[in-house]
Amino acid sequence: MAMCQYVTESMAYMLSGNMDQGAKDFQLEAAISKFMHRAVGIKSGPSLAEHVHADLAPRPSWYASEAAGDFGATVEKILIRHGKGIRDEQFILKRLADAAIDIYGMAAVLSRASRSLNNKIETAQHEALLTTVYCDEAFDRIRQNLDSLHDSNKLSNDTKMSRIATEVIRT
């Protein structure tokens, strides 16, 4: 619970910082932050290591970079496969949304913990620990969500669940 609270606060800090700097487009970030608040109550993409504190550079930042790259590549494949029809693929969109929320959470906690470590805040080591665990667990969830988008059995089950829902609505 403490980790979820830390992630939620980090998202709020990141969002408010972007807004304070005059960012115009922050609706997605606001929606993700709102979702996380409610939940608590490019393969090999660019490395984040140079942007985060050295204590977080080995694994947590690698996880975030890798997840962002995997997400981009997966979204591209999904859009090529479904085109505009993607708006009707709710199971796929849910998995993509869940992955995006976790990636945003990783970026938020990496930013916040790095700032705390750089400024030698009293709670910095605890924040680094929260960040490390969150990024590790989020990476596993992201992989599971993205991998399921290429799993024929999962996709077949999605089709079956859609059919079940349609039949339930009819009766």
Automatic annotation (TrEMBL):
SUPFAM superfamilies: Acyl-CoA dehydrogenase C-terminal domain-like (SSF47203). It comes from the Eukaryota. One of its GO terms (molecular function) is oxidoreductase activity, acting on the CH-CH group of donors. The keyword Transit peptide applies. Keywords: Oxidoreductase, Transit peptide. Residues 64-170 form the ACAD9/ACADV-like C-terminal domain. This is ACAD9/ACADV-like C-terminal domain-containing protein. InterPro entries: ACAD9/ACADV-like_C (IPR049448), AcylCo_DH-like_C (IPR036250). The keyword Oxidoreductase applies.
